[in-house]
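Weekly modeling sync, notes
Attendees: S.R. (lead), two postdocs, one rotation student

Agenda item 3: backlog of single-chain predictions. S.R. asked that every request posted to the team notebook include the full sequence so nobody has to chase files. The rotation student volunteered to paste the first one in as an example of the format we agreed on. Action items at the bottom.

Example entry:
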Amino acid sequence: MSGKPGEEGGSPPREGTPRVARAWKPQGTRVRVGQVELGGPGFVVMAGPCAVEGMEQTEHTASAVAAAGAHILRGGVFKPRTSPYSFQGMGEPGLRVLAEAARKVGLPIVSEVMESTQIPLMEDSVDVLQVGARNMQNFPLLRALGKTRKPVLLKRGLAATFQEWLLAAEYVLDGGNEQVILCERGIRTFETATRNTLDLAAVALAKQRTHLPVIVDPSHATGEPDLIQPMALAAAAAGADGLIIEVHPRPEQALCDGQQALTPERFQHLMRRLPGVLAAVDRHLWRPEFPAHVVGAR
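Predicted structure, as returned to the notebook:
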């Protein structure tokens, strides 16, 4: 049955980005991750190590970010690295470490999937499957994720245009999985002062033109710990639905991207500052919403 965008049973046109377009779902999409919801009035923070390195490091970080108010634990177990000699992640053993650390602090997990064969391995442990910037146009992977019912966090490619980013999301939605979260993580430009160039205009544009939640990764966007907080606050003011931030107890010893990780203390400071900026744009940090009679009884 065919129809217009937004109508039940509507068939999308062949060109463009029909399923991601705001017109297809004017009310917006809210993605549930455990008890957490992205795309509503609540602002969601994902935080944790770039790479899972072992139980002590992961549990320490998980406890710290949970105590500071993070809603989702991030951690990489499969790592796509520019150099084949760099740490590639712990793989399946790291997945078990991450799952155990998350269980102890009661947080859901987001972790990167690099190829379709890893999906069955990760589905039981991971709550959000992340597609990294290097895999944004890995179309077989996107099609495979379209067949899952797990939320997908889709990072913008290193030099992808806005339209290419949305069309990558279209592959997942076209497969039947509507739980897609867009992530702006900076793009490669002529500027070398920062690791990448954070495109906050794309965040506002994505909120206008799509119905999908949009988050920002200020860690990869800047590559500088001193810039993470101001860019995170700017993302909140620009209308993002959340953040994904790298945190490590000892950044100088990290096996992956330690130069852009916040210490637990600096992450805690950011979490204390976020509510003030969010209040200015009529938002708040995500929190469980209780029915009125339950709240009154507390």
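Discussion: group reviewed the output briefly. The first helix runs from residue 55 to 68.
Action items: rotation student to repeat for the remaining queue; S.R. to check formatting next week.
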